[in-house]
Amino acid sequence: MERHHFAQAMCILNTDGCNIFENLSRKEYTQCLDCMREIILATDLAHHLRIVKDLKNLVGDGYDRDNAKHHKYLLCLLMTACDVSDQTKDWRSSKKIAELVYQEFFSQGDLEKAMGNRPLEMMDREKACIPQLQISFINHIVAPVYELLSKLFPKAEVLLKAVTTNKMYWERMRDVYKQRNTTSTSSLEIFDDEELDAEVLSSSKYQ
Question: Which of 66, 89, 107, 148 is the most exposed place for a label (fewest CB within 10 A)?
């Protein structure tokens, strides 16, 4: 998908009147395209996971603005942080975005089933436990990203706190839903359940 996005960007740049880099020198033009490719590919979480060790080393050593690799890794970290920034929004906004994401996931899962394939669990509306999937995503991807970011930029700590708060809301939703003796937490109906949302928000622990 990310490579497709870069290919589309190149198509736009090659369209008459759309090349915003046309006045750059050949060297500058090449540098811009290389940078654009890097930061688009950085939104691929598989790419992010491959460079996590390098990002941790960057944070541990301290950012050196004269180090080209540090510059590259910082751009990648910032792009990943932007890509998962829905987790830093208020609970209702973050939950709404999650609903849209799972609607897309489940639609793809339905198509795969119709083709005789077995979709990933997170794309199977009959098996996916949405709150638990969100908790796992935050634990393994989102929180570590913002932990690294906040060490480089202390003012980003507020974003990490927002992520932590949203994770607590998802944990609360998972627990409340289980208490209802429901056999599955996969239904998109959890997003329209006002009683459930009110119960999640009612506990002072999660205010």
Answer: 66
Structure-block tokens of residue 90: 């208020």
Structure tokens at 121: 């669990």
> Within its chain, how far is the Cα of 10 from the centroid?
24
Question: What number of other Cβ atoms are within 10 A of residue 56's Cβ?
Answer: 14
Q: How far is CA 39 from the centre of its chain?
A: 14
Sign, CA dihedral 126-130-131-135, equals positive
The rounded distance, in Å, linking the Cα atoms of 126 and 43 is 28
Q: Encode pLDDT of 169-195 as tens digits.
A: 999 999 988 887 565 545 788 898 888
Closest CA relative to residue 81, chosen from 148, 36, 34: 148
Per the structure block, which two tokens stand in for 61? 């050593």
Token pair belonging to 142: 């989102």
- Give the list of residues 6+ apart from residue 132 with CB closer than 8 angstroms, or none: 174, 185
Rounded Cα distance, 193 and 23, in Å: 54
Q: pLDDT digits over 71-129, tens only?
A: 999 999 999 999 999 999 999 999 999 999 999 999 999 999 999 999 999 999 988 98
Higher per-residue pLDDT: 202 or 1: 202
Q: 17 by DSSP, 3-state: which?
A: coil
Considering only CA atoms, which of 184, 76, 156, 45 is closest in space to residue 68?
76
- What per-residue confidence (pLDDT) applies to 96? 95
Token pair 């209702």 in the structure block, residue = 92
